[in-house]
Amino acid sequence: MAHLLSTSCSLKIPSCRKTFFQSPDQAPNAFPTSFTLKTSKSLFRRVVLPGESSQRSHTVYATTTPIKQEASAQKHSALHQSSNDPSKQKRVMVIGGDGYCGWATALHLSNRGYEVAIADNLIRRLFDNQLGLDSLTPITSIHNRIRCWKSLTGKTIELYIGDICDFEFLSETFKSFEPDAVVHFGEQRSAPYSMIDRSRAVFTQHNNVIGTLNVLFAIKEYREQCHLVKLGTMGEYGTPNIDIEEGYLTITHNGRTDTLPYPKQASSFYHLSKVHDSNNIAFTCKAWGIRATDLNQGVVYGVTTEETAMHEELCNRLDYDGVFGTALNRFCVQAAVGHPLTVYGKGGQTRGYLDIRDTVQCVEIAIANPAQPGEFRVFNQFTEQFSVNELAALVTKAGKKLGLDVKTISVPNPRVEAEEHYYNAKHTKLIELGLKPHLLSDSLLDSLLNFAILYKDRVDSKQIMPSVSWRKIGAKTKTVTA
C-alpha cells in the first residue's frame, strides 16, 4: 500500500480540530484552512454492500490548527490535565452524535455549557442508502448542522469523523479532545436490521461489541477518570414474569442471599450485543476502576427538542419504516397518511416509553452526577409503560380530534416475542436525581401528529409494513428492490 507523505495544502473542511475521511476526495466542501495529512497504520473499516467486493483503503487524518490557536495549544493542554477540576467546563464526547438520540443530546449539552465533540462514522446515513429508506424529516449534513449551530449560538461543536472500531482513530480522538465524559450512542441500534441476514447480524455484533471494547480501552489508556455514559436498552431484560429491577436483583437461594446482575433475556442479535456490552463494561469497572453508567432506555418517541426547534437545519431525523421506526413515531406517521395502524400480533406487547426531550435530560443528569471509580450503575431510562394496543388507541383518539380517519389492523408479528405478558419495570433512580418527565399527553400527541402531517408528502408507503422476519433470517445476503 502506498503511504502519503506528510504535507501541507489548502482544502475546504469544517471548523473542527480534527476530521477523518476515508479518502481525500471525500472531504466535504467548507472553509479554507491549512492541515497536515498522514496515513493511519490501520485500515478504515467499511461496510460492504451486498455484491460489492471488499477493498483495502486507508484512513486519512486531516488536522486543522488555525495559526492563532497554535500559540495557545500548550496552554489548552494544561487546562485539561485533570477531569476532576470543578472550575472548568466538562468536555463531553458524544459518539454517534449524528444519529437520532445523539444529535439531540449533543445540541442539548452544548446549549447547557458543556464543551462538546461529536465522533461519528456517518454510517446511519449509509443504512438508508442500503435499504432505500429516508427520514420523514429532511436532514442536512452533519457539517451544515454544526455550522448552523455555531452561527445561531456562537458555540462550537468539534467533529471527528471516523470509526470507533478503528482504535487508532479512537485513540487519536481521545488524545485530541481529552473528554471528561463519553456518551456512547455509536451503535447499530435496530433489532430488525440485525435480523435481516447473517451479514447484518455479524456487523451489528462486531460493530457494537468491538466499538464499546475500544471505548473502554481508550478510557483506561488515555482518560482514566473519564465517565462512560452508555446507552443500553430495556430489551436486555426481555419480558420476565417478575418485576424488572434497575440492573440488579437480590435473591436468596438455598439459604444464602446475594445481589446479582438482573437476568438477561435478549430477543434479537441487536439486543444481545447490548447484553455483551453491559457484561464487558461491568467487568472493566471491577478490573480497571472505570466509572460507568448504563442507561437502559425504553422506546423513544418525538422529534423536537428545545435546540432542534431553533432552525430547520438543526431538525432531527424521524424514522417511520419497519426497520428503524419506533412504535409511536410509526403510528403517528401512518395516521397522518391514512394508512391503518400496524399492530403486530395481539398487541399486548408492553414496553417502557419516553419523550426524546427526556432522553437528553437523562444523559445530562447522568453526566452531572457521575458514577464513582469502579462503579457500574444501571438506570432504567423511561417514564411510562404502554402496550402496543394502548398506543394505537391513544393515536386513534388524537387523530380523530384532528379530523383523521384512523383505522387499526393486526398484522402477523415478524418478531419472536410474547404478545401478552406481565411487565412491571422499576425506574426511580433518574427521578431521584431530578428527572422532570414529559409524559405522553394529548397536546404532545397532537404536536407529533401535526409534525407528521406537515411532512406527509415525504412518506414512502412501501416502507410502512414490516419486512424483516425473525424466523426467516438466513445466511444469504438480502438486497432491497427499489
UniProtKB/TrEMBL annotation:
Pfam families per UniProt: Epimerase
SUPFAM superfamilies: NAD(P)-binding Rossmann-fold domains (SSF51735)
Residue ranges of every copy of the NAD-dependent epimerase/dehydratase domain listed in the record: 92-380
Family: Belongs to the NAD(P)-dependent epimerase/dehydratase family.
Listed PANTHER family: DTDP-D-GLUCOSE 4,6-DEHYDRATASE-RELATED
Protein name, as recorded: NAD-dependent epimerase/dehydratase domain-containing protein
